[in-house]
Design a protein that fits this description.
mainly alpha
Length: about 550
């Protein structure tokens, strides 16, 4: 029998290996969450904790968050050396790493199968418990070897041990600082509460407030200002964004004046939060509680965060007070469009139309067809200014990434049975023609207008601007860890399901970095949405996935 050889280049084989390992780890993460952590939480709830399950319940989450944050900090610290390590990675990579992945899967199966008996063991230093912990460590080691050869890890550890230690120290410090500041949130909540009350009184609203219970409202619509409503989470995200941005592009800013971006961002985020709560109360009291809860409340938070981040980014790069680069006045939005405006405008219109439609529609967006028409019209007006060219060929890579994103999205996005049943009942109660028209526009929006608007905004505009380079829709763009991570996290926040959205953003950004054209990212995004739409409409009816 003749042997068939696959002539794949090392970068392609490397990428395939990374995607395969990532898929295996994601699936294992879901198995752990559904079985091990569910068991740990149940034992804690029933007060039947053992030393090992208690340790996982108390420390498992913080340790995982510190490690993930350390990875992000480490990537920022060594972002100037990424190109060199990429070359080393390709030189040392061998297809034999697949054997380590197979061994990793076997090790994970042993950990998974023995978890229940070990976690219920009263002795943490018993032989089964020690063996289980060692198997967890061995499985983690096999995961690292499946990702890269041991010589790559030895080189990285020997050359970047200071950066690794700094990343761990910074991430641990940020976590402990976050825990400490959570105890101080009541002071910020008091300021937020009093400010909301003052604005409502100024607007002559029929205000009810109970500071001890942190309840405030107007008329019969009352809201409870919980910890998250105090604004500290948004402020923390803005502080982290500004810190990473200033560090990554420190040569382009005037210090110490650039540090003023911190109080500006904090003040802007807090003001947005007060306005958000006031608007929520007014909408719920004088218009519709359903629209306030299902429409405005679910959209306004991330919209405020994105607007503040983009505003800080624009101010930092275009103000001579902060930027050391020669200031070039941006072109006016009015009049003729340019490439930057043409890539950003469809996304702005998409966000605005989505917010306005949900404000009016409530839980089921019957105005979605109008959104598609408006966004489609804006895209058509911007199309001549997008510099897309005429020579474009679709490769296999965007199609593979599109299918992978669809699979990961189905696995990562939690289901919402209320949303699923609400959409099904709303469609069933309408005339079949109206329901069919809505589905057609939902298809066009999901597969065409939304991918075009979001990829132009995130992978053409934001990915370039975060790296301080001209906006481009064609040609290679320079890789930047900061731009890669920040644009993807912003993309995740935009979609609510932040983990799935961030992973999708990373993969779509990878398509753009690897390609010569923004259309590759648009095609990958469109294919992912197409597969999800068919999955929902023809098979599952799980509208919360879309």
């Amino acid at each position: 029998m003749a042997k068939v050889a696959l002539n794949l280049s090392p970068p392609v084989m490397l990428l395939g290996n990374l995607l395969l390992v990532a898929l295996v780890v994601v699936l294992e993460k879901f198995a752990i969450s559904a079985h091990v952590y569910a068991m740990v939480f149940a034992m804690a709830k029933e007060s039947s904790e053992t030393p090992l399950s208690g340790f996982l319940y108390q420390s498992g989450g913080p340790i995982s968050r510190i490690l993930v944050l350390a990875l992000v900090v480490f990537a920022v610290l060594v972002h100037r050396s990424v190109g060199r390590y990429r070359v080393l990675y390709i030189e040392l990579y061998k297809p034999a790493s697949l054997y380590f992945l197979i061994a990793q899967v076997i090790g994970f199966f042993l950990v998974f199968a023995s978890a229940e008996s070990v976690l219920h063991s009263a002795e943490i230093f018993s032989l089964p418990a020690i063996g289980w912990i060692l198997m967890v460590l061995v499985t983690a080691l096999l995961t690292a070897l499946a990702l890269a050869p041991y010589r790559f890890w030895l080189t990285l550890l020997s050359e970047q041990k200071s950066a690794i230690a700094a990343a761990l120290a910074i991430s641990a410090g940020i976590w402990f600082l976050g825990k400490f500041t959570q105890n101080l949130w009541i002071y910020l909540a008091e300021l937020t509460f009093n400010s909301v009350q003052a604005v409502l009184v100024w607007l002559d609203a029929d205000v009810y407030h109970d500071f001890d219970e942190r309840i405030i409202g107007a008329g019969e619509f009352l809201v409870f200002i919980d910890t998250q409503c105090s604004g500290y989470e948004g402020i923390g995200l803005i502080v982290a964004f500004v810190a990473i941005f200033l560090y990554s592009f420190r040569d382009e800013f005037r210090f110490p004046r650039a540090l003023l971006l911190f109080p500006i961002g904090i003040a802007a985020m807090w003001i947005f939060n007060v306005v958000r709560i006031v608007a929520l109360i007014l909408i719920g009291s004088y218009w519709s509680p359903e629209v306030a809860v299902w429409g405005f409340h679910s959209q306004a938070g991330w919209l405020a965060l994105i607007m503040t981040s983009v505003g800080i980014l624009y101010l930092a790069q275009h103000s001579a007070l902060f930027s050391s680069r020669q200031h070039v006045p941006p072109p006016a939005l009015l009049g003729s469009l340019n490439l930057s405006v043409a890539t950003l405008l469809p996304l702005v219109v998409l966000l605005a139309s989505t917010l306005l439609a949900k404000l009016v529609s409530g839980p089921f967006n019957w105005l979605y067809p109008l959104q598609v028409v408006v966004v489609g019209w804006v895209i058509a007006r911007c199309l001549p200014h997008l510099d897309l060219g005429r020579n474009f060929r679709v490769g296999y890579f965007p199609l593979v990434i599109g299918a992978l994103v669809a699979l990961l999205w189905m696995l990562l996005v939690p289901l919402n049975t209320n949303v699923d049943s609400g959409h099904r009942s709303a469609l069933e109660q309408q005339h079949v023609v109206l329901a069919a028209i809505w589905l057609v526009f939902r298809f066009v929006g999901a597969v065409i207008t939304v991918p075009i608007a979001e990829e132009l905004g995130f992978r053409a505009y934001l990915l370039c601007r975060l790296n301080s380079q001209p906006v481009a829709t064609r040609g290679r763009i320079q890789f930047s860890v900061f731009a890669f991570l920040t644009s993807s996290i912003a993309f995740g926040l935009l979609h609510g399901a932040w983990l799935a959205g961030t992973v999708a953003g990373l993969l779509f950004a990878l398509v753009r970095y690897r390609s010569q054209h923004i259309l590759d990212a648009i095609i990958a995004h469109g294919l992912a949405n197409l597969l999800l739409f068919l999955f929902v409409v023809l098979y599952s009816g799980q509208w919360s996935v879309l």
